[in-house]
Batch of 2 targets.
Target 1
Amino acid sequence: MKDRDNFGGRYGVLVALAGSAIGLGNLWRFPYLVGKNGGAAFIFIYLFMVVVLCMPVMLSEFVIGRRSGCNAFGAFKALSQEKKWRGIGLLGVFSAFVTLSFYIVVGGWSVDYLYRALHLSLTNRSTANLETLFGTIITKPWEPLIYLLVFLGFTGMVVLAGVKKGIERSSKFMMPMMFVLIVIIALRSLMLPGSMAGVRFLFRPDFSAVTPDTFLAALGQAFFSLSIGLCTILTYASYVKKDENIVKTSFLTVFSDTGFALLAGLAIMPAVFSFGISPGEGPGLVFVTLPLIFSKMAGGAIIAILFFFTLFIAALTSSISLMEVCVAYLIEERKVSRRRSVALCFGAVLLIGALCSLSQGRLSHITFWGKNLFDSMDFLSGNVLLPFGGLLLVIFAGWKMKKADVIDELTNGGRLKINPHFLNIEYFILKYLAPLTVATILITGWLH
Ligand code: PHE
C-alpha cells in the first residue's frame, strides 16, 4: 500500500513501542501481583518468562507485521493463502477491543486521581477516609464515566492524528518524561526510613510462596505488560521501515518495559514497607495504599501529582496502541476512513467500557463465573486471550512460515550481521519451547 502511514525514525519506533508496552501493567498490575505472590520469587519467574518465552513471541509479531506491512487481519492474508490463519488476526482485533474496554476504566481512574491530586484533595484526608475513597469513587455511576470519557477522548485524538503525527510525536515527549518522573518517585521512596525492607522484598526470593497459579499469573502479566499476543506489536511493526533492526528494537522494548516495571516496584514497595502497610493489598495498591502513603510523607502532595500524571500518560500511550489495532483493521479491511474508524471504535469501546465501569457498582449483580464484568474482561484478556493469541502467533511464525523467511526478515535480507547461534536458539524456542511451555502453563492454569 503506497500511501500507508509509517514511523519516521528509529527513536520514534522505539518510544512508540515502549509506550505501548509500558502502561498500567507496569505501574498498577505488576506491583500488586508482586505483593500478592511473594515478592522476589514472582519477579524471578516473571523475568524468566519475559526473556525465554516472550522474546520469541515478540519477534514473531515483528516478523509477521513488518514482512506483510498490513494490519492484524491483512497480515495473515498477505502471508498465507489458507483462510484459517486469518482467525489469528481477527482474534487479535477482538482481544484488543476487549482489553481496551476495561483498560479505559482504569485509565479513567487515573484521570480522576490526577485531578484530585492537583486539587490536593488526596493528601488532606484522614486515613479512614482515604480507605473508603477508592470504593466510593469507582462505584459511583456517573463520575467514573465522565473520567473514562476524558481518557478515551485523549486516546481517540492521538489515534485520529495518525501514526507519525499522532502516535510517534506524542510518544516522543511523553516517554522520556515518564522515565524521569518514575526515577524521581523511586528516589523519594528509597529515602524514606525503613525503605530497605521493601528493596529486600523485591530482590530476595521466597520460593515457598510460589504455587501453580503463580506461573499463570506471571505468564499472563508478562504478555500483558509487553503488549504481545493481540497483534499490537504486529500492527506497530507494520509501520516500521525495512532497514530498521527489529531484533534490537525488540530487545530495547523488552528491556525498557521490564526496567520500568522494576522501577515502579522500587517506587512503591519501599514506601509500602516504610509505612508498615501490607504489600499484598491487591488491585487497590496504587489507588488506596499509595495515596495513604502520600498523605503521610513529606512532599507527598507533589509526589502524588507526579505519580498520577505518570500513571495517566503510561495508560494513554498503551490505550492508543490498542485502539490502533482496531482502527488499522477497519481502515484497511473495511475501507473506512481513519476518522470514521476512530469514531466507530470510540463508540463501541465507550459502550462496553461504560458497562465495565458500571459493573463496579450499579451492575455488580451481573456476574460471569463469579466475577463482575470488569474483572471478567481483565481475566479474559490477561489469562486467556493474550497467551492463547501468543501461542497461535508463534505457531504461525514457527510452523507456517519458512525458517528462511523468518531469518530473512530478522536480518533484513541478510544485510544485518546477527550472531547465527543467537538466531538459531531464538528460532528453536519459537518453534518448540515457546508453544509447548505456553500451552502447558495455560492448560494447567485453566484446569487448576
Ligand atoms: N502493555 C500495556 C500495559 O502494560 C497494556 C497493553 C496490553 C497494551 C496489550 C497493548 C496491548 O499496560
Target 2
Amino acid sequence: MKISIIGSGYVGLTTGAVFAEKGHDVLCIDKDINKINRLKKGVVDIYEPGLDEMVRRNLKKHRLSFDSSIEKACNFAKVIFLCLPTPPLPNGMADLSFIEEVARVIAGSISEYHLIVDKSTVPVKTGERVKQIIARYSKKGVDFDVGSNPEFLREGSALDDALTPDRIVVGVESKRAELIFRDLYKPFNANLVVTDINSAEIIKHAANSFLALKISFINSVAKLCDTVGADVKVVAKGMGLDKRIGTEFLNAGIGYGGSCFSKDVNAFYAICRETGVEFPLLKEIENINADIRQYFVKKIQQELWIVKNKKIGVLGLAFKKDTDDIRNSVQIEVVKLLGDLKGIVSCYDPKAMKNAKKALKEYQNIAFVSGPYEVAKGADALAILTDWDEFRRLDYSKIRKLMKTPIIFDGRNILDPVEIKKAGFVYRGIGRGYYEKE
Ligand code: UGA
C-alpha cells in the first residue's frame, strides 16, 4: 500500500521506516529541507538503535523516499499520516498549530478520497477539528475520512515496539477507513483495537499518564522504604507479580523525563479541565516527579555534608538508556542542581554528550570526560543517573581505586547493593534503605 507521512521526526521517521520494512511504499515529508537531503542519502540525525540501517535498507529497495512537498504527499498516497510536533503551551495545553496548518495545506491539495490519520499525541476532539478544517478548506464535495492511530513506541526500543506492538489502536468514523487500517496493519499480526476517534485519542493520553502514575507511585513508596529500611525493588516485585498490577514501570529512580510523559500528563490535565472534569491526580503525578530529583540531591548533600568543591562523577545524561535525547532529562536537572551547589561535576554519557554540552554550557564547574573511568578519577562520589547497560558492567573495584572516597549514589537502582558494598563502596540508592543500614 502507498503511504505518505508528514513530519519526519522521531515518530514519523520510525513509522515510515517500519511501514517500508513491512513492504509498503512510503513517502516521508518534512519542511526541513536540509534534513530531507540528509535522509535521501541515508543520514539519520537521531540516535535510535537500528533505525539508520533500516532507513538505508529501504531507501535502497526504493520502498522509502523523502520529499518536502505536502502536495506531492497527497498525490503519492491515499493514506496520509500526520506525525507532527504538539509541544506544550504555557498553560499545559498542546500546541496544535502545526496540525491545523498542515490540515489546511492537505485540504487545498486533495481532489479525491484520502484518509488523513493523526499519529501525533493530541488531546481528545482534535480529530473533529481536523475534519472541520479539511471540510472547510477543500474543494466542495471532496471525499475524505479522518482517523486516529496513536503511537506507543519508546525511544531506545522504537523499532521493536513498532514492529511487534502490544496493540494497535485505530479510531475511525467509517467502514472504509477501518478496512484501510486493517490492510495496512495486516503484515504486523497484532491486536487491533478499532474504536471511535475520541476514544482513540483518550487512549494515548490515558496510557502515558497511567505509566507516569506507576513511576510516581513507586517513587513515593521508595521514600518510605528509605525511611524504614525496606527495599523498594522487592516491594515492586511483590506488587508487580500480581497480574492486575504488572511488574513493568515500577522501577524507582530519579523520575521520568523525555519529551512525552510530562507533556502528556499536563496536556491530559488541561483537556480534562477544559471539558469541566477535575482530575487532580494528574497534577500529583507531576509534583511527585518534580520532587524525587530534589530528594536524590538531598541524599547526596546528606552524605557529603558540603557539596561545594567536592568532585562528583556523573554517569548518564540521556533521559533513558539507548538514546542521545536529553529533552526534559531529569539527569540534566540533577547535574544543574549539583552545579548550583558548587560541586565540581564531571560527566559522561555514551551517546548524549553533544546535546548535554549545549544544555550545560553556562556552568564553568561542569566538565565532560571521555569515559566512565575518567569520571571516577579523584571523585568524592559517583552518581549514576541513566540506566545504560554498560554502567552495570563496569569494573567497580577499578573505580573504587580511582576514587578519592568510594561513595555511590545509584539514581536508577541498577547496581546490586550487596556486591557493591562488598567491593568497598558506601551505597545509596532510591528506596534501598534495607541495604543502607550501617
Ligand atoms: C513513552 C511511552 O513509554 C511510550 O509508550 C510512548 O509511545 C512514548 O512515551 C510517547 O508518547 O511517544 P519514552 O518517553 O520514549 O516512551 O520512554 P519510556 O521508556 O516510557 O521512559 C520514560 C521515562 O520514564 C524515562 O526517563 C525512564 O527512565 C523513566 N522510567 C521508566 C522510570 O523512571 N521507571 C520505570 O519503571 C520506567
